[in-house]
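Can you give me the bound-state structure? Components:
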Amino acid sequence: MDFKIATWNINSVRLRINQVERLLAEEKPDVLCLQEIKCINDAFPWKEIRKAGYEHIAVHGQKGYHGVATLSRIPFKKTESRDFCKKGDCRHIATDLDIPGGLRIHNFYVPAGGDEPDPAINEKFAHKLAFLREMTDLYAKQRSKSKNRMVLVGDLNIAPLENDVWSHKQLLKVVSHTPIEVELMNELYASHDWVDVMRRFVPEDEKLYSWWSYRAKDWEAADRGRRLDHIWVTPALADAPVAMKVRKDARGWERASDHAPVIATLRL
DNA sequence: ATGGTAGTCGCACTA
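Here's the bound-state model for the whole set.
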């Protein structure tokens, strides 16, 4: 089967429920992973999502900030979330799809890390680094299971490659592209031999972004983007990716999120 | 070197 998965930092699912419905109607993914839903589970638009044909919904939300949700046309066998750094933040939810051979989907919202890229004076940056180290430890421990089929998606808040940002030089001291973050991301990447699905389709010498700041006067003209959102798969799925796209047009929708949806198709 | 925007919640915080 061709399995289509999308990831999107929606920056308030209640405010942009119409855009979620539009994306689901246009792309018909099997699974949509949302980040920054910014609401508690009770305030999540369950009815609208179900009406759109997504009856299997795993929500891990908190009041006002963060929060993740995985919407699926395929039933779940199991759902669990991990409280990284034990802060009580809702930044992760894992769902096991009930399909032959199984498929585990990790939906992440990694801390943004604040402005100052020094963990000694910026707690938020320290939190981001600790979060990444905890992810790496976790996947390194599960390495024996790397034959399992897993997809890791989400807003990882790091643009690792030179062409994942509009200016490598100018962003070296900007949180999301600093050497320490890139190094930790590379360690995480190596911890489970993850495959970077997006870069399977766009060579490393070409620019590739999924986020454009709200603060630019004209985001499209300036095109000062970053690739903060990612889709990774385990080695068991190394040959599975058959298509990938960034729905950049959605960044131009009225009252858009600052992130564009990233979508991949896997041949299972 | 700086300030620019958005969302939630309630007049501060996170991004």
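A couple of observations. Residues 123-141 of chain A form the longest helix (19 residues). The mean pLDDT of chain A is 96.
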